[in-house]
């Protein structure tokens, strides 16, 4: 028990000294410093990739950046090409469907015209007595005169 009290009092004395922090705060500060530095480095790298901060780059860094840009551009080109090919195929299919629909309508109209022509021809072959439009000559109409 005495040892525990002595350790506690020694720790308190150490923390009361100016310029010195307790152990758990010191480790937190060093972690914070590491994380801050890493964040700064990553921010700079991102800015360099975005083309904002290129002054500090050496030749090898610029070549790496160029390679990254070329790779990204290649991927964009392949993706765009794929999308255009798919859209082209879809539009061709729609055009074929429209053409088929147009042909069906034309065939339907032609068949309809043929049936009208055939029905007129059938009417033309009927005898006049069956026709409502034929005139029959009969006795003259007398008005009682």
TrEMBL record:
Residues 1-36, 107-145 are annotated as: Disordered. One of its GO terms (molecular function) is DNA-binding transcription factor activity. Residues 17-33, 112-121 have a biased composition (Polar residues). It comes from the Eukaryota. PROSITE patterns: K_BOX. GO terms for cellular component: nucleus. InterPro entries: TF_Kbox. Residues 25-112 form the K-box domain. It comes from Sesamum latifolium. This is MADS-box protein. It holds the Pfam family K-box.
